[in-house]
User: Fold these one by one.
Assistant:
Number 1:
Amino acid sequence: MNTLRSRFLQHVGQTSPSPMMVEVERAEGVFFYSPDGKRYYDLIAGVTVNNIGHANPAVVEAVQRQAAEYMHVMVYGEMVERPQVEYATKITSLLPEGLDSVYFLNSGSEAIEGALKLAKRYTGRTELISCRNAYHGSTHGSLAVMGSEEYKNAFRPLMPDTRLIEYNDFGDLELITSRTAAVLVEPVQSESGVHPPQPGYLEALRKRCDETGALLIFDEIQTAFGRVGGLFATLKYGVTPDIVCLAKAFGGGMPLGGFVSSKEIMDTLTVNPTLGHITTFGGHPVCCAAGLAALNYTLEHDLAERAEPIGALYESIVGKHPAVKEIRRAGLLIAVELGSSERMFKMMEELTKRGILTDWFLFCDTAFRISPPLTITEEQVCDSARIILEALDALA
Ligand SMILES: Cc1ncc(COP(=O)(O)O)c(C=O)c1O
């Protein structure tokens, strides 16, 4: 039959062996609606993209206004485009001092690529260090620093001179040396199934980078814009990197990525060679207008401050169920550990039946995620947590 679903499988390139296959007709707030009238709680938020909820009127209005004024006008960095300038000014006013120059791109992978190039260019070194079980994207460079051999092996040769360390392992910091251009780390490791930093770990990492002259790069692609309970993880944990990578919620639901550094470091991309990084669509005016509107909404509604109590409320309800082995959490980025992948996949099925969409983690298929829009109300938390408890009961 020539249904939308069959054409999805036939004509839309596939990489997942078991796509969710929920047809979306409309999305609003914390809900998806399918054409059969079924409503789903969205506990994924597009993998921490939709922090301010779906179809937020503030973003819809900004997109419509900017689209009517102008869309693409010229490759990045030549014309003075108000949405880029306003967004860069706002973001840098909220980040720690020294992070004052934003290079806009389209996605997280591109933000990582740009940050790695900048670190090599600034330090004149080549070695890039990242962590086991870290996900930084799927392009060749970001894949080269991914923390999983399984995902890398089929695509070798990749970028040389990379090395993995164990996240949260203080001993491994010795592997950072005067050969190292940069250490790339997620301040809260996400796709490993949510692992917040051990007390003192990010400080020790900062210290080791300072001792060796390596740049410290934070991948805040999942953690920023209030998700972990602090507008940025760098603010929450009080450790300032040399470069921050942003994407996902950065565009308020539109595709936008970027890396932020000091003007001194950033400016090295303008010489030897000039145009050290080029993008056509990066910093698209409509995406920047959407991102700025989303950030303003986040600030006006104190969403970063809400993430911690809302996350704690989920933990207090769901964590009590005997089938739950552990809850790992940073703000409203939550992994519910079930201890077996069989149980986790059964749980996803049970939840979908009951009108909740959740997902597993790329490097941890024994836990499912709870990361709804930060706008979710307490009533909606209690209601969705009740459904989760029912689904957990059905696992027995
Ligand atoms: C922590 C992290 N870094 C980088 C990326 C890559 O971002 P994108 O898919 O926009 O290229 C992702 C995407 O899931 C991510 O979670």
Number 2:
Amino acid sequence: MPDLGHAEALMLALLNTAPVIDGVRRDELADTEGAQAWLAAQGWPASGNPARALREARDALKSVIVGTAGPASLAPFLTDVRATPVITDDGLKWTLDAASDNSVAVHAILAWDKLNTTNPGRLRPCSNPDCELFLIDRSKANNARWCSMAVCGNRMKARRHYQRSRQA
Ligand SMILES: [Zn+2]
């Protein structure tokens, strides 16, 4: 099981599994093959058919982040989860036991909650209205707007420049 830093990366990766590319929404978790490949890329054990559980967790978390659903809607992913304390030379570590279908969801929700507590408002959707990706703002000024400066940042700048030059 990953530590929370890794869980944060996992959460962001999960949120960003349905990018819009050239106006077409592509869902990496659309089928079993895609979902298993995605899990493998995250270094997560893949078995059975995780696609549906992953999609449900992703969509529920997205709705909570953008405010169209309350946090209580995440409750179904958190049933039958147990944390076991293990004492080591480095201190206390918690091991999570969750039904394997929900283990990614549980870690993603924990990471989301931790981020809300330690860095509230830092997880947000990309400001490009045509983009469906999320970002975690790590800038000092807390003013990052794009999932990627290289993609959405430049695209939106170019669009504003085009609009300005048309108006001029
Ligand atoms: Zn974007």
